[in-house]
Amino acid sequence: MTIYLPEHFNNRELSWLSFNERVLQEAMDERNPLMERLKFLGIFSSNLDEFYMVRFGGLKDEVLAGFNRPEDKAGLTPKQQIKAISIKAQQLVEVQYATYKKIVKQLAAENIRFLRPKHLNKAQLDFVKLYFRTHVFPVLTPIAVDAYRPFPMLLSKSLNIAVEIASTDEGKKRLALVQVPAVLPRYLELPTEDEDHADLILLEDVIIQFIDSLFKGFEVESTMPFRITRNADMPFHEEESRDVLKQIEKELKKRRYGVAIRLEVQQRSLSKALLFMLQDVLDLHDRDIFLVDGPIDLTFTFGVYNKIGIEYDEMINETLIPFVPEGLESGKDLFKALLKKDYLLHHPYHSFDPVVRFIAQAAKDPNVLAIKQTLYRVSGDSPIIKALTDAAESGKQVTVLVELKARFDEEKNIQWAKQLEKAGAHVIYGYKELKTHSKITLVVRILEGGVLQRFVHLGTGNYNDSTAKLYTDIGLLTTNEELAEDATNFFNWLSGYGERPSWHKFETSPDDMHDFFLQKIDEEIKLHEKYGNGRIVAKMNSITDKPIITKLYDASQAGVKIDLIVRGICCLRPGIKGISENIRVVSIIDRYLEHSRIFYFYQNGKEDVYCSSADWMTRNMRKRIEILFPILDVGHKSYIKDMLALQLVDNVKARVQRADGSYVYLKQEAGQEQIQSQIIIHQYTGGRWNNIPSVFEREPSNWAEREVLRLRAENEKMTDD
Hints:
By secondary structure, this protein is of the alpha/beta class. Helix content is 38%, strand content 21%. Strands 14, 18, 19, 20, 21, 23, 24, 25, 26 and 27 form a ten-stranded mixed β-sheet that branches. Strands 10, 11, 12, 13, 15, 16, 17 and 22 form an eight-stranded mixed β-sheet that branches. The chain has a six-stranded mixed β-sheet with strand order 2-4-3-7-8-9, sandwiched between helices.
């Protein structure tokens, strides 16, 4: 039995930073339109915020608790992880702001300028002055900090300005704080003489320009924008309270005022005295301070993209119009269509509208008796919530599990839960000590002759009509009796008492799905030993579970060929001599967020294909209620195989992981056409692409196979060196 060492694994947190680095590369990639690159800077910032609030905050808690045991894969202690994270994060932020300055310069060349007050002409300065007096000044509240008024508990991620002032008669320096109002737009569009030009100024620069009006009788000596990030890792202990709803509402109030874990300061406005004061008050280490060479919090770029970018077609990606499968078009009776055949949907290449209409039609149909659904994250103005509300108010039996512990969506989910309860729906608030992460809907309808028919939707992504336009996910609409029976038993299990049912087709977590995957890998090993054709392809967001990783290592050593398409965290290291030489890891970062979870096992030609709400992460396998469901239709299997094949030969947006854990772009061979998988999948889904590479064959007769051989040779050379 092979003993696996820490160097055979990637640390989870550093692997996540590597993922966000790939996001940053999209901002740096000049093949992307300018506004798309600007938006990726905002995505990078938003990702890093959440990482610090949750993952970094959790490590800080472990250090404070005296926990110093190494984690179970790469073997780093919490202190070692914090040190490594801080070094890498500082490097990435430095690159981020260098990229920001470059993009801003390129935007200026296209007549989109970010201006500071000193750059404004008279008309623009008069406009800004009027805007400050009428819109900004009435909202501002200067906060003095002295012996009688201690440093306030500032909200996490709020943008603030530290102000150093001196009395005109005494000359004594004092400190005050001004919060940049989050209720106002982060930037202001300025008047221009040419409508083809766009001049913008940031709100904090407007406030600083006129900040002396807040301190009459004092002289403003310096101003320094800053932002504090606080620990938002919410502790949740079910046994402490029988009322989950009230407990989470209580914890949400604490989140905004957690312990400070990061301080961002604008470098050009740096005041050492103010910085030392903030560092002392917040009790932060030097490595927790980020001096940024530009505006703090680049998530404001989302607003610029949505308002300014859409006016410049050449600066944004061409919109890819989603397709609606024949039979599910608007105005069609979806229940009639589903009685004829099952439908596989691949969002956003396929429109999410049929899923919304499936639930809306069920709500209005007098023959529908019951609707049961799990909700993890939904949109702000969700048509699905409206349909469920209408169904409940019309007297239908509506059962909805609203997962209150969906991180950063807790408040929204509480609102939806209360709305549904008022309408008469039976609302379940989750399951003891577990998150319900499954994506499933069951509709029970009576047919002619009094026969009951069950319609089921299963998916890999959330019932969110907004993110369905941006996330790639698989959905299945089916009337298969065994899947319908499993769906019925699943909801009864969630809402009542009793042991977990015996499934016909489902596998579920906690625990059982984990055992199933280990069994499937073992089966592939045994079949390979007998027939020599072992093959596993798995696509997911992240892989962190050590038993699954080590089982894949076992399969690799047995000769099974394994391709993993992992967008984010990957604790597995491919290409290690004698350990994982037959494993290849691909990560694709492109215009859509790769979110679907798909698992393929060759099984000596039987070709088992499964989709799931779960990643190969310990939390999904052990701490969540998840569903794994099979793809049974031959045509649906072929479609999914083709999608996986295209992603495995992507040579535009794909990066491959090397044996040292680093990622490199998949290189194009001389004369090889460009394969940007998301674009080609859109064409294929619309019936406009037929040239699918045969990456599921054993012979190295295609691009993906040759790339594996090239990477193996590189890794062997690195090992020898």
